[in-house]
Structure formats: structure tokens, C-alpha cells
Amino acid sequence: MLPWAPNIWRIRLILNYKRLPYRTCWVEFPDVEQTLRAINAPPTSIRPDGRPVYTLPAILDPIHVSSGTYLDPSSSLSRPHPIVLTHANTIAEYLEHTYPARPVVPEGTRALQTLFVHYIADVFVQPLLPIMVPLSHQRLPPHVQDHFRVSVADQRDDYGTAGAQHAQKREEQWAAVQAQFTFLAGILEKNAGDGDGDVVMGHELTYADFAVCAVLLWIEKVAPHEGWARVRDWDGGRWWRLWERCKAYMDVF
């Protein structure tokens, strides 16, 4: 299995960077809610009508326990709940607080890191979505594609366009993506005077860099020829250098 989801990569990079042992439990999209409910995971968000939304990533930490208890069906005894968390930012904060060795959020930068990651997730990736959502959908097994067919349909408006018109529209989409990358490159370049200019904090990798690298991994895994072949060379090879800086933390366990 080739993982590509950027929110999950964010957490995997942190776990690997902190050298925390873990095991990945692979869950297909149609099974996410049932699986998370089974381990008493909190919902990621709540819909306007009050229905809970369950999404990945999620972690279960058997070393630490919550204040609640559950009934162990194998022994009919009440046992403490292990910590179960959802939402990438919540998980990142928990890992940093609970396992402070090899920090990914330097002291005094929590607000800055949070704001930067919010920018990456809610602004930086927006031009990528019309490209990457359909391509990601195509990589899913057929029965999982059916689960998303209605919700993804709105992202596929360019797929009914043939030939040169489609190619022109795709190049316009990539141009919008490049504009976001170039803007961010200009911001990071301000670190070049007293840092290396490749990472957000100027010297060491942090959570903010992993948020960017998770997007790079999404492109590299899902669109290696159409996307990563061009992105890696943008802005003087900056994004390739960041990918290389994070490469040691890309193991999948």
C-alpha cells in the first residue's frame, strides 16, 4: 500500500522524527467511521445538523490512559481507556506535549506554528484541489471510489473537456499552484540571511515543515509525472531540498 494522504503524512513524519514506535492500521474510507467508533475515538468535527464526522488520522496511545473506563469484553472488567485522538493538529499537539524529546514545536513558537499549518491546510493547497482530488480518487479501489462518487463529481468539471482545451485548463491550474509555491518560497527566503532558507524556522525541521512536506508527498505519490516532476524544480529546487531534508522520516511502519 502506498500512503499519500497529506494529513496522515503530517503525523507519520512527526512520529518518525521523534523516533516513537508505532504501527499503522490501514483503514479504507468506507470503514473509517465504524473503525473509529469502535475504539471510542472522538469525532473530528460536527455537521450543522449535529451528526458527527469521523476522519483520519487518528492515534491510539496504549501507554497513556484517559480519565474514563470501558468494559473489556474478554474479561468483563472495567479498564482505563487508552488515549484516542483524531484531527492532525490535536494529535500533533498531544505528541509534542506527551513526548517532548526531539521537539517539532520549538519553545515559544506554538502560535506561529499553528498559524502556519492553518495557512498550508486552508490556503496554500486550495489551487491543488481541482487537480489532486480527482487524481487521488482514481487511485482508490473501485468499491471505495463508489463511496465518493457523488462528492468528487463537483471536482471533475474539467474531465469532460477533451484535447487541447483540457490541456490548456490543466496548465492554468498548475500555474495557480505555482503562484502559491512561489509566494511561500519568497517568505521562506527571508530566512536565508541567518538560516538556510529551506525550512520555516531557519535551521531545524519543525511541524510547519512537515505540513509542507506532507503536501509534497501527496503530489509525489499521486502525480509523480504530471505534478512532482515540475514542482521539484520550482523556485530553484527549494521543494526538492525540503523533501530531501525530510526523507529520513518517511518510513511507513
Description of the structure:
It contains 10 helices and 4 strands, in the order H-H-E-E-E-E-H-H-H-H-H-H-H-H. The chain is mainly α. Strand 1 (45-46) and strand 2 form a beta hairpin. Helix 1 (6-17) packs across helix 8 (207-222), helix 8 crosses helix 9 (224-231) and helix 8 (207-222) crosses helix 10.
In short:
The chain has helices at residues 6-17, 32-38, 88-98, 110-124, 129-138, 142-153, 163-188, 207-222, 224-231, 238-246; strands spanning 45-46, 52-53, 58-72, 77-86. It has 253 residues and is mainly alpha-helical. Strand 3 and strand 4 form a beta hairpin.
Count of extended strands: 4
End-to-end gap: 11 Å
Taking Cα atoms only, what radius of gyration do you get, to the nearest Å?
A: 20 Å
What characteristic shape results from the CA principal axes? globular
Main sheet specs: 2 strands, antiparallel
Keywords, separated by commas or semicolons:
two-stranded antiparallel ribbon, globular, 4 strands, single chain, mainly alpha
How are the elements arranged and paired?
Blueprint: H1 6-17, H2 32-38, E1 45-46, E2 52-53, E3 58-72, E4 77-86, H3 88-98, H4 110-124, H5 129-138, H6 142-153, H7 163-188, H8 207-222, H9 224-231, H10 238-246
Antiparallel strand pairs: 1-2, 3-4
